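Bug #77: duplicate submission created two jobs. Keeping one. Sequence:
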Amino acid sequence: MVYVFGGCNGSTFYGSVERYDTKSKTSTLLSATMPGGARANPAAARAGHSIHITGGWRTGAQVTPNHLLFRKGSFRVGTEMPTHCPPGISRAEHELVRKGGRLFAVGGACPAFGASLDSVDALKLRP
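Kept job's structure:
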């Protein structure tokens, strides 16, 4: 399965989750809506039975919370993901990697299409 979290089409931002089944080649729009509303360009990585989603952006608004966990069709808010962005500015266009009990947010921009980051931020996951 491939999951798509949020997105945008011009000035319209989405807070939905879509699941694509690579075997049947079908998409399903899931009923879950991301806490904090719509966002484009978040990053995601799987850890255990959950998918972690961090960052993202939408015009004129900081994206909060900046760390969500998705499991079995529902969300919960995770521990805030560290970021090198100035206060009030969301990190977007980054990559998210899970390794050895940590999440790593790599690169990106503050805000999206803004000042590029050359940093790596890490968050230790709870067992």
